[in-house]
Amino acid sequence: MTYADIILPVPLDGLFTYSVPAPMEGQVRFGVRVLVPFGPKITHVGVVARVHGKAPEGIAVRDILRVLDTEPVVTATQYRLWQWMADYYMAPIGDVLKAALPAGLKAEEGYKPRTELYVRLRPEFGSARGLHVALDMIGRADRQRAAFETYLSLSGWAAAADSGNGGTVAEVTRDELLNASHTTTAIVNALVKRGLLETYTREVGRLNTGGEPDFTRMKQLGEAQQRAYNEIMFSFLKKNVVLLHGVTSSGKTEIYIHLIKQAIESHKQVLYLLPEIALTVQITERLRRVFGGKLGIYHSRYSDNERVEIWRKQLSAAPYDVILGARSAVLLPFARLGLVIVDEEHEQSFKQQDPAPRYHARSTAIMLAQMTGAKTLLGTATPSLESYHSAQTGKYGLVRLAQRYKGIELPEIRIVDVKDLRRRKMMKGPLSPMLMAKVREAVEGGRQAILFQNRRGFAPMVECRQCGWVPRCERCDVSLTLHRRTNKMTCHYCGAAYDVPQVCPACGSRELHTRGAGTEKIEDRVCDAFPEARVARMDLDTTRTNGAYERIIDDFAEGRTDILIGTQMIGKGLDFDRVSVVGILDADSMMNYPDFRAYEQAFMMMAQVSGRAGRKGGRGLVILQTKSPDAPLLDYVVRNDYGALYREMIAERQAFRYPPYTHLTYIYMKHRDETVVDHAANEMGSMLRRWFGDRVLGPDRPAVARVKTLCIRKIVLKLELGIDMAKVRQYLRAAQKAMADDPRFRSVQTYFDVDPM
Ligand code: ADP
Ligand code: ZN
Ligand code: ZN
What we know:
Pfam families: DEAD, Helicase_C, PriA_3primeBD, PriA_C, Zn_ribbon_PriA. By secondary structure, this protein is of the alpha/beta class. It folds into six domains: 2-76 and 91-106, GIY-YIG endonuclease (3-Layer(aba) Sandwich), CATH 3.40.1440.60; 115-203, no CATH class; 215-407, Rossmann fold (3-Layer(aba) Sandwich), CATH 3.40.50; 412-455 and 531-652, 3-Layer(aba) Sandwich (Rossmann fold), CATH 3.40.50.300; 459-516, no CATH class; 662-754, CATH 3.30.70.600. The chain is built from 24 helices and 31 strands. Strands 11-12-10-13-14-9-15 form a seven-stranded parallel beta sheet, sandwiched between helices. A six-stranded parallel beta sheet has the order 16-26-25-17-24-23, sandwiched between helices. A five-stranded antiparallel beta sheet has the order 2-1-4-3-5. A hairpin with a 3-residue loop joins strand 3 and strand 4 (42-52). It is globular. The structure holds adenosine-5'-diphosphate (ADP) and zinc ion (ZN) (2 copies). Residues 219-222, 225, 246, 248-254, 405, 575, 615 line the site of adenosine-5'-diphosphate.
């Protein structure tokens, strides 16, 4: 008897063993998908991980129902990476499978090929004589005759029959025929009915063929860029990972393009990861010009069917040479990976939050590169502390680009004290007088402005003036954000939308007012203040539909809009030529966030947003509005002094035992009932303390302690470097199992967030 161990898309640890019916032997092998029964009623599509002859003990094994592939859809390297992710991030391998496979491969009939309808001549008429017979049959039906003759010339039958030697006949789609002969489907159908033509379908790909690559379109590297390029190549001789620390607009992307070309010429594939789909829009255009059809794009905005086609192309004999994508692209198959580029490597969105696996795409990419012998280049103007520390300690190579391309100066950054302006009654609305003046100057001078407000919606808070009542989500412990466009109050944690009350439900007062400003409000104010300007807004709400990113970014890049308002989405690596002023409207909301990374994140966000100013045509200006103008952090931002930020933060991390000086893991527990989750978390806390002592902190209530009706508790585990993490994970798994096996806590969810952000 043959057995197969199968990865199933279920959140349970381990593989599942099934027996292989005799007729399927040979077909069931590593990497192919199979359909199996699961439980009394359902079936799952799983991937074969192993085939063996060892009957599992003590359990009834069921048969595989069907084999879905003739060739493997998962490579051995992918499976190794999945195993690493499952182990390191302590997630069931089934969850990794779920994250990796496009939906179209996860269902039995998930993928639908696109087909096209073709027409062709019935074979019995395929000769000069046959054609005459056919034309005779049509007789006086003029429109049919015209359509038929058009078909003969499109397909080349006319010429072939004339020359008398057959010749080659081209395939003609029905649509081509309809267009060329200006006729109707009915006429073509009549020809089919007469038995002269027949139709057939053919599968066609959905993927953009992308045109011919043209390396001559590459820009020649400037002197500093060339030096950096050489240093990177040299560094790769000794190090597997190199950090390119280059200020904004220093031409990093151009260097990547040269590195990609070099890799392609050595017959290697490149994976180019970006943190944000918005960014792929611009970079796609830059890469497409040079690499044409060698470039594939992969992210969640693509349809399931398209993603299946990209996946399959990666498995084919002619895969893409370059894959550009967001986080999940690291999970694609690669046959000959040579280089991984992680652009904007400091971005937190590389870390997946929910659902499991809570993996970091940068770490995963480095692991993938290590498994395949590829090199990894991390690029950014504001390195993550972890990466910079690795570069400082010699684990990674480090290459710097301190100058902007063409020597354009970094923008001047002016701080505006909002508190002081308010005191002097000079702050009318969210834009200070200076920012107003500079935006006006930009718009009137044919330049552009970017306004950054890291909150979407109209107002982050609604409040009763009489009693202080604040509307909150019924399912989450957060206050609601007012959205004017939809006239709803929305929960940004679960998405629930509520009607705006006319009177305060607590005291009956009509004096409900809003506090704070989100991007919608900024947009309103800006439109009022600059009626002649063309204003666009880019945030989660305006980019939900397909093509919305492209439209907003293109319009701004082409100068069809003057002022762009947005959340952190606009801060990431976008390259615009005509932006002369950038306004950071509320620096404080970034600095006062309760998280150990908040401070450096605030620096990075402000430095990145500032980097959008003055990239071409003269030095830009950044106006930074704050209530705490003396914060040392702002001084670092003004001087663009990453080094100072790094020194302060790394000292703090060391003093308080945070990464990179420790391994950090959060243990989350969730349950509907507050007392149950408290009880469970306390039990878990004491269990972990028995093993790990004072390395365990908590349990505590996280900043948002209830989401989607589940109460959340958090335990922090800080482990010194050099500890045996494999052992630690064993303990943690044992603790998780002990909780699951305890009848009191069976319904409590316990999960881990390894290297949390
Ligand atoms: P970064 O990725 O460091 O922010 P980019 O690669 O986007 O910088 O370069 C900034 C701008 O300068 C872009 O508009 C880019 O086209 C231009 N640029 C960079 N390098 C060159 C070069 N060697 N030749 C011409 N233009 C360049
Ligand atoms: Zn009230
Ligand atoms: Zn909610």
